[in-house]
Structure formats: C-alpha cells, structure tokens
Amino acid sequence: MSISRESWKSQKLLAQVCGQCLSKRILVTPVKFSRGLGTQSVKESSPTPVPSLLESFRQELYQPTHNDLALSYSPWVKKAIQRRQGRKRVLNMYQLMKNRHESLLSQLSQTDIDLLVQKFMTNPDDPSSNGPSTEAFEILQDLKEGQLFTQAKFRQEEMELMIYLASELKLTKRALSLLTEATEQYDQLNISSYESVFGLLASQKKQMKKMEYWLQHLEKVGLQPTKSIVRSVVLSKLMSNQLEEASAFLRKHHPADALTQLVNRHIEDPRELLDNALNVFAVDCLEEWRLNQTRHIYSIKRELGMSTSVIVKRLMDKALFTGHVHTAERMLKDTITMEDTANALTCSKRLIQWYVSQKNIKHAMLVWEQMEHNGLIISQDVMEGLLVHAAKLKYHVDTMKLYRRCNHLYPTSTEASIYVLQCMVRSKAFTNATLVGPEVESALDKNIKPHLARIACKALFSLSAQTGDINLFERVFGLSEKLKLSLTHRGLTSLTATYLKLGDVELAKQAFQTVASHTEGPDVVDFNLLMRMIVLEDGKVDYEKIFDVLKHMDLVNVSPNETTLRTMATFYKSQSEMQDSLYQKLLQHPSSVSRFNQIFLNNLALSSLLTRIDISKVAGVFFRNNRAELFPNEKNDRILVNGITYKLLLDAANEDRGHTSIAEKLLKDMLSRGLKPTRDVYECIIRNLAKKGKITKARKYIAQMEQDTGEKANAATYTKLIDGFLYLKKPLLAKSVITEDIIKNNIPLDDVVEEKLKKIERILKTRKK
Which residue spans within 38-130 are E strands per DSSP? Predict the structure, then answer.
C-alpha cells in the first residue's frame, strides 16, 4: 500500500493545482513541444510581431510578470505556480525564436543566456526537477553548437555546468563523454565536475572500473579526492559488499578532519570505521540537501546491519520541516520494505503528528492504514492523538474506524471517547453515537475534568434530542446537575427538542414553559424550536403565528440568528419569493462568511434543485464548482461542501440504477477530498452495480467499503449482490453468493437471506420441471 503524494510540495505537482492557469498562454505561443527542446510541432497561427518578441523575452527574463492566483493558495504554492508559469512563457518564446526567428537569438548577450539557463536550474534532489533541468541542458547544447548565438561564447563554466546537469539527469554516457572532452580541451577543470560524475557512477552498480580510471586521472593532474568523491567511492564499494576495500580506501583518503579523526580512532576496526563514516556522509548529504542520497546511505547501513536510528530521525526532521514531505513518506516506505520495525514506527509517528498539525487527516489516515496493512501497530498515544483530531475535525467515518481499532488494541481513554461521541453527534451519525454513548455516560460518574464533562453532557443532550430518548436525557440531566456544570438551560432546551423528535407537541410546550420559568428566559435556540412546534402542531406553516414569535423575540431583546433564518427557509416552498428573500438575508448575514453557513446554504440550494431537475443536471452544477449557478450574485466562488452535501447527491444518484456512473464519480470526488461515505452509501452503489450485471466492480466496492469504514461486509451487504443476480434472472449465481461469500466467511444468515435462499430453490425447482 502506498501513500498518496497529493500534498507533495514539489514544483511539478504544485503546478497541477492550477492546471487551467498553466494551460492559458499569456503571450502568443504558436509552438508545441514535447520532451525537451528536441522535437517541435508548429501550429498554424498568426506570427508574433518580431520586434516585440525579443523585448517580451527580455522583459520576462529580467522582470517576470506574475499572474493573480486564487486567494486560497498558500504563498508557497503561489510562488511555485508563478515560477512554473514564468518558465513556460520564457520557453515558449525561446522555441518560437529558435524555429522561426533565429536572427533574434544572435542578439542575445552572454548575460541573457546566463539568466535564461539560471531560470531552469532547480533542486537536483527533487525528482520532479528533471523537466526544467533538461531544458537548461538543451539550451547549453544549443550554445555549445555555436550556430544560434553570436554574441555569447561557450566557456569552460558552461561545459562544467553541462557535465553537472548530465550527471543529475542520469545521462551516464553523455556525462562521461563531456568530462572526457573537457579534460582534453581545458587545462584544469573545477573539482566539482569530477564530483558530479563520481556521484552519478556511485548511484549505479558495476561502475568501479570507470571510477578507478578517473581516480587515476585525478592523480595524474595532481588533484586529491575530495570528501564528496571519497563518499561516492566508499558507497560504490559498499554496494558491492567490498567492506575491506572500502575501509582501505577510506584509510588512504580522508580529506576532512572528521574522517581523519575516525580513521585514527578506529584504525583496527574497519566495520566501526565505516559505520561512523557513513553517519558523517549522511550529515553531509543533509547539509547539501541531498535527502534522497541520505536515504541511499540508510539502505546501505541497514543491509550491513549497522545502526540507522540517528540518520532516520535527522532525515525525517529535515524533510518535514522544510516541506519535503514526499521524501519523508519514501523514508517510511524504505523502513517498511527493509523490515525495520523500530524506524518504521519512528517515521510513522513523525508523519502522523506532522499531518495532524497541518489538519490533514486524510494523509495521516493513509500513513496509519499503511502501517496496519503491513502488520505494524503504532503506539497508543499516536493513535489516540490521531483519533481525537479526526473527531474534532468531524471525519466521522475515519473516527469510528480508528475508535474500533483502538478499542481492540488498547483501553480507549475517556477523553478520546468523549470527542468521538461529539463527532458522531455533530456528523448526525446517531447509530454510531448510540454505541459510544454508554461508555461516555458511565465516565461521567468518575472524576473527570470539568471541561470534558461539559462536552460529554452537551453531546449526550444532543443525542437524546435527535433520537427522542427521554430516559437518556433524564439520566444525563441528573448527572449534569450533580456535577454542577451549569447546563440547566442547555438541558431543558434539549428536552424540548427531544419531545419534538417524539412528536409530542404538548410535552414540548411544557418543556418550553419550564425554560421560561427556571432560567433567565428563552434564548434564540428555544424560539427556533418554538417555530418548529407551531408547524408540527398545525400540520402546516401558519405564517401569522411565526410572525408573532418573531415579534415576541423582539420584545424580549432576542435577535434572530442565522439558524432562525435557516429554520424559516425550510418552511417555504422551493423557489418561492419568501424563500429567495430568506436566502438573500442569509447571504447578507454577518455570519454568512463562515464556512459552516456557506455550506448550509449550498446544501439547501442543491436540495432545492433536486426537487425540480434531474440529478445529472444537478451533478453538472456541482462539478462545475461555480457558486453563481446556485446564487447569481456569488460569481466565481467555489461551492464549499461537507459530507452532507455528498450524501444528498449520492442518495439522489442511487435512487435510479441508471445514474450509477454519477454516484461513482461523486464517490471518487468525495474520497479525493479526504471524506469517506458511510456503508449505506456503498451498499446502494453495490446494489445498482449488481442490477446492471457489473458484479466484479460491485465486489471491488465491497472491499473498498471494508477498507474505508473498517466494518466487514455482512449478510445485508451481500444481499445486494443476490438481488442483482435475481434481477438478471441468474439464480445459480445468486446461490453461489450465499454459499461462497456468506457461509464460507462464517457470516450469520439473517431472515432476509434465508428467504432469498428459499426463493432461489423455488425458481430452480420450477426450471427443472
């Protein structure tokens, strides 16, 4: 199992964040190119005025333009996108001059060429930098050929830069031929050119003969191996399991003080010498931003059975706190692959804590799932930390999955259970909330912190209000009064809501009167409930009574809030003048800027659309992601969503098996945002796929459901497959599901499955006759 690299902050992937921006040509660029500068195909378009092209090119080199980007991007992302856009514009203009206006290139000065090449220089440790580095190499190749540029010369420094780029791009033959050419053409090369080639050879196996050749060459020209060259040679020898040879070479060549001290200290112990020397090399690589080479050193040390914990910790710190999260993820994968349990736990802990600090629960869960998939159990403190943060951010499916696993491995703490209950209630996952509720309720009898007790009581009050469990309310209300949590008003408001849930208007009225007599008076929440009482009592919307409530609120100085407007909006018919007016008031309400209220309005508007037009058209509005299609005055704003948004769209798509493809697309989009549907959504998709005969895909969704929710498929899940086969008039296949999937996996048969089995037997008997 691999971790998605969606949060990789590299230039290549960050550019994909704003694909539309990058696809727009800022200047007229009638040239397409692929894989560097070598292959071009010219489009038919009007040519750019020649005099302005060179001016635009130099303008972009010396004073690049920056396009306005979405405010939601971080400064880091904006900078990376703008840098990518700038390179694209410069490269397009360079291509145009090279293919159509070669005379303009002859006007470029040495400074222009230097700046052009510099624009494409990137971090060599980043694998995504190969594209820009290739462009820089090709530009230098054009300069080397000497046919395009007359005012610029190909100097020794350009030759050395080409050797460096060829080495970084892993162009072994090209790098060696350039180095050979340079040694023949120039009296003495900079030692960095040799270091680049040695580094390239060290990354490949069976290159010792070439290394020895160039070591002899260095000796001939009077140059001593540097620390970087020594490192490359030692690593190459160790890759071939030549420990004695590597140790002997290190004793002979130790150009740095740190290496000299190690040689003197471990003169008689070659293994200890190499162990410590590799640590020094790893630190050097970290300082040089060669994080992937540090990973290479880790792998060598691990294979040789040497200590690696220090390297792993330093690499993880460097990678995480400098934005190279993808390297940290690779380090975790390395430790798992090499069965290094201790370091795998260290890496997973650092990664999970990092993602949690960034509120990126999606990737934190992927790390945890990767560990679980490989049979590695993270510590209780890390798991509970992830559980609490997932609960606070309302990732209710992941929260419940973690909670079940945590309960299986460790005794879950009271704090974690309380936040899990709060998450389930807020996410309206009341079935799961009733599973956690008894544990939290029993914890209230114990000596827990007051702020946790308040959270627990509020969650239990909400649970009783949403489920109509009056006994639960009475128990919790008694405990809150006993603990003196000052929740009397909150509790009585929940009592009113509980009676409303039960449909008992008279008792709800009595509870409302109790609020009025035992507290300082009803607040806005109580009045909102009173409006619901009026509608429930009359069986219709009595606008005069609702207006009386609003007038009474004004008399007692209780201002309607956005919840009041939302409550009223649900009373009016879709697209009525009053509902449109309420929408407008909500949009203009001071709280409308909050994410919660924007999502509520979006959900309300989408629900309204679903009552009037087909789900396929509503899905089109949703995927176009322009809020102006919901509210005309909200131009170019995104449609903010939550799990409820997807739930109402998925429910509409799943009502008809003809819209299964829309449901699958919604599910894919939902998962890409780190949100996961409940099992009932999966089961609806499974049922519709089975009815369309797509059994293989339906089984894949069963497996995905088990992975995402942490719940095993039961008889009810497989009944969806049975119904699909019966719908297709294939009773034998329906029977095979019962025997192979249900009975074989020891899944208890329920009444529905047994009835299906009897039906199948009747069909088969009829066919025999």
Answer: 39-42
